[in-house]
Amino acid sequence: MNDSTKKSDTHYAIGKKNPNLPFHPAVRAGDYIFVSGQVPKDENNNMITGTIEEETLATLKTIERVIAHEGATLSDVVRITTYLEDTRDFGRYNRAFLEGIGDAVLARTTVEARAVINTKIEMDAIVYKPLAPKA
């Protein structure tokens, strides 16, 4: 994080911004973390192409890496919106999502979106992770 991305001690950007995009991977706003749309990438930020199951699990891992910067895990996720390239993949995606999300208690919406490009899936998330009290 640099000073230009910090609004306050409770409102700041998380993760490295792609210089070609007008947003950050996530933003902390108080006790919440808002995760921008994430796609299936490995730990080196390379796209993962595979089945809907593989891409679903990889996308959840991408979200997990983004929120880990704030000490959060997938169990802290309270809301996910999923954008599927093809709703015919819904059943297989849903089974993989259940496997990947673990015991999170969350709300979710899944929609078909033609703007999902070069991937089968994109997800954004809202995470509730209270800020640690100041010492």
Jot down its keywords.
135 residues; alpha+beta; 60s Ribosomal Protein L30, Chain: A; seven-stranded mixed β-sheet; 2 helices; globular; deaminase activity; Enamine deaminase RidA (YjgF/YER057c/UK114 family); RutC-like_sf; YjgF/YER057c/UK114
Read across the widest sheet, the strand sequence of neighbours is 1-2-3-4-7-5-6
- Principal-axes geometry comes out as globular
- Total of DSSP H or I helical runs spanning 4+ residues: 2
Strand residue percentage: 25-35%
Q: Return the CATH architecture.
A: 2-Layer Sandwich
The end-to-end distance, rounded to whole angstroms, is: 21 Å
Low-confidence stretches: none
Can you put this structure into words, describing what you see?
The model has no long low-confidence stretch (mean pLDDT 92). This protein has a single domain (3-128), classed as 60s Ribosomal Protein L30, Chain: A (2-Layer Sandwich), CATH 3.30.1330.40. The protein contains 2 helices and 7 strands. Strands 1-2-3-4-7-5-6 form a 7-stranded mixed β-sheet, with helices on one face. Helices cover 21% and strands 30% of the residues. Helix 1 packs parallel to helix 2 (90-101). The longest helix has 17 residues, at 52-68. It starts with 5 loop residues before the first strand and ends in a 7-residue tail after the last strand. It has 135 residues and is an alpha+beta fold. Belongs to the RutC family. InterPro entries: RutC-like_sf, YjgF/YER057c/UK114. Pfam families: Ribonuc_L-PSP. One of its GO terms (molecular function) is deaminase activity.
